[in-house]
Design goal:
Chain lengths: 129, 384
């Protein structure tokens, strides 16, 4: 894929695909995957990358519970997850049970759609994984 | 030519701080102006001799322009290199190079901020990377919390050990008349503090204060013209690994490994030679990470290293003798204060908290979310 200033950049492309229900990441010419969306293959350069659909499988690399009052939605978990393909990214966890998440737990990508905003990539923890 | 060529070529001959605490009614450039005048007075140099200027605030995008205009000078070298709280360490190295290259003769590095009295408004500093802001981390605390959580997971580091860093900082702050918080605290109180982003509590976080600082840098051969004991720049290096925390290659190892190694190499010293350790403690976990990454203890043993009062007053390895960002001052960026305490220790200016026979000092800066690391090493004339 050559760099072209026509159309839109990789970030918008990622979001369009996500909005359509597909979580895609980029795979560089060297075979390595990378995320977040970029024009250049990180570290080695070049634009011979391609979009691939991510497996959605991931594990919790690190985790922080952020206290929040119940009336504002209660505590939530911000995590850095590591995709099965290698890249890491920040996200929020969605819990399927009362069991608190810990580092190393498996999680699965989940796309949250909304009427008035772009789709959001989160990760599901617990029974549904 | 290798970087070691810069060893000892320049010296800091004047330092000053101003407005540490709460200074309602004062603007950042006004506080900076006070610090600059005090630093020049400390050195015995006139403003008209300043031909190099590195300037930073939390509220000026063109800080070197704003500061030069404010001071009424037209420097032949200027920089507002911005990589967060470590910017001042980077600027020091640039100042060293500029003097050695003959671009200028007298460099002032200056900073001013009213982050506290202005209601914590240092928006430029807490710019949230586009991807991360979708997930509502508490910026910047959550980034450091994620690093702390991973360190606890990999190495068994405990919250009690993070709290030891805070207890030590507060004990040092209690010995520093300039510190914003001069009240020692016990471990139980720290452990009982409110969690902001687990595992970090409000007490694991640095202060938000007002404050300004300045230092004056000249060539080695001019250092003795001035009254105060000079602190020679023996080594300096910076390194970066990422901007947003999820792109950090390894959450438990910072770029201080690289910046430290290069700074030690330039200075021709090792961690065990260092008498004075000043580490940018934006959060308690920083001290543990930097003690490891700068070679004061093996990776993973930082928690044990800081325990039992080792880095506190009376301990065998004093760290952050001014009280650090946790107890002394943190107006959004702390790097310049960190270097000034190192230099004051070398000058023997530190009163009750003075480290005896201090000859070699390390001041390490951190910027972004563990993103930028910059190490500086200063020595007395005896180290040349």
């Amino acid at each position: 894929m050559g760099q072209s200033i026509n159309g839109h950049g990789p970030w918008a492309e990622y979001q369009q695909r996500l909005n359509a229900g597909q979580f895609c990441i980029q795979q560089g010419g060297n075979g390595h995957y990378f995320f977040y969306p970029r024009v250049n293959t990180p570290a080695i350069g070049g634009d011979d990358w391609q979009w691939v659909e991510a497996s959605g499988q991931a594990s919790i690399y690190s985790l922080s519970r952020i206290p929040q009052r119940p009336e504002r939605g209660g505590d939530y978990y911000v995590a850095i997850v590591q995709l099965a393909e290698g890249p890491r990214l920040m996200s929020q966890l969605r819990l399927s049970s009362e069991v608190p998440p810990v580092i190393g737990d498996s999680v699965r990508a989940h796309i949250e759609h909304s009427e008035d905003a772009d789709a959001l990539l989160v990760f599901q923890h617990g029974e549904a994984v | 030519m290798s970087a070691e060529y810069l060893r000892g070529k320049t010296a800091v001959v004047g330092v000053a701080q101003a407005g540490i605490g709460h200074c309602a009614g004062w603007q950042p450039l006004e506080l900076m102006g006070v610090a600059v005048q005090r630093a020049l007075d400390d050195a015995g140099i006139g403003l008209d001799e300043v031909d190099g200027l590195c300037a930073t605030t939390g509220s000026h995008y063109f800080a070197s322009l704003s500061a030069a205009e404010y001071l009424g000078i037209q420097p032949s070298f200027s920089s507002c290199d911005m990589n967060g709280g470590s910017s001042f360490m980077s600027q020091l190295l640039q100042g060293v190079m500029a003097i050695e290259a003959g671009l200028c003769k007298t460099v002032v590095i200056a900073y001013g901020s009213n982050a506290r009295s202005n209601g914590g408004n240092h928006a430029g500093l807490i710019e949230t990377p586009e991807w991360e802001q979708l997930y509502r981390p508490r910026i910047p605390v959550t980034g450091y919390a994620l690093a702390a959580a991973r360190h606890m997971h990999e190495y068994g580091t405990r919250r009690e050990q993070l709290a030891e860093v805070v207890v030590a900082a507060r004990a040092w702050g209690a010995m520093n008349p300039e510190a914003f918080v001069q009240e020692a605290i016990d471990l139980e109180t720290v452990l009982g503090a409110k969690i902001i982003s687990d595992p970090l509590s409000v007490m694991d976080c640095c202060l938000v204060t007002d404050g300004a600082a300045a230092m004056v840098l000249v060539a080695k051969d001019r250092a003795k013209e001035y009254g105060k004991k000079a602190a020679y720049v023996l080594g300096a290096s910076s390194a970066t690994t990422h901007r947003q925390i999820d792109q950090m290659p390894d959450l438990t190892t910072t770029a201080a490994v690289q910046s430290g190694e290069r700074a030690y190499q330039m200075a021709g010293v090792q961690a065990r030679d260092i008498d004075v350790i000043q580490l940018y403690d934006a959060f308690s976990i920083n001290v543990i990470l930097f003690l490891e990454d700068l070679g004061f203890c093996p990776k993973g043993e930082g928690g044990a290293f800081v325990s039992g009062g080792r880095i506190a007053p009376g301990g065998e390895r004093p760290v952050n003798t001014n009280g650090g960002g946790i107890s002394c001052v943190h107006p959004g960026m702390y790097g310049l204060f960190c270097m000034i305490e190192a230099i004051r220790q070398l000058r023997g200016d530190c009163g009750d908290r003075q480290i005896p026979s201090a000859e070699l000092a390390l001041a390490h800066g951190n910027g972004g979310t563990l993103s930028s690391q910059a190490t500086t090493i200063f020595g007395t004339e005896a180290c040349l």
